[in-house]
Amino acid sequence: MSSLSIELPTVYFKVSIDEIIQGEKEKRGFRTYLSIKWSNVTFKVRKVRFIGRVADIVSRDKFTDLLVIDETGGIIVRGWDEKSNILNKFSINDLVEVFGTIRMFGEEVYINPIIIKRLLKDNSEKRKKEIEENRKYIIGFYTSEKLNAKAQQKEG
Q1: Handedness of CA 96, 101, 105, 108 (dihedral sign)
Q2: Which CATH superfamily is domain 4-122 in?
Q3: Could you read off the pLDDT of 116-125 as tens digits, one per residue?
């Protein structure tokens, strides 16, 4: 199978933190897209979903930063204005699941949280399997849709 690129701008794509850090970023106006290479596929996403522990909290005048880490790395989750208040309810060492969008300010990459919730237990092995299963499903769905579209073109 040749290299495949799948763009998923509306899906909260399950990732590990190192994929956010290592992935190629592309600015399109105010939006930042992240390219995640997995097997022979490149997923292009705007929204991500990941689990990690709060390692640090820094509150400033206009925003609050949570440093969220997993076994692969750490990333800033930055809440501006009203979202700053939401982030202030978390404590260091809380296990959280973050749904957010990729943002860049200069070379700094951070996550703008849409939803962030506290989790009771960490099951990172189960999470790794979920990520793999989700990606296989998306690839299967996408390739079958392309094949169906080609078949319809031939019929038409």
Answers
A1: positive
A2: Nucleic acid-binding proteins (2.40.50.140)
A3: 999 988 777 8
